[in-house]
Amino acid sequence: MDPVTGTFWVTDRRRSTITPFNLETGEADAPIGLNGVPRGLAFGMDGLWLAAEGWVYRINSHSHEVTATQMPEGVTATGVAIDEETGTIWISTCAVD
To answer: CB burial class (10 A; 0-12, 13-18, 19+) of residue 63?
Structure first.
């Protein structure tokens, strides 16, 4: 759950999507399509950060605007950690042959 907005996020590995839910109303917004299978996420720096194989996404906590960054060829993003004090985003990866 996003600590800034209280939005609950659900990943769907089969469809490669992430969907925001409003817990107060019980309603879901439209799913956000991803270019890879969602693997790990973290909240911080006013957004949700999501590792999805060949991509890392930042979804703005308020607007749900999506920014995508492609990983180098052959590298799979598997997890995310955030150090808000230093403004650093850490991505765990594995190399694929």
So the answer is: exposed
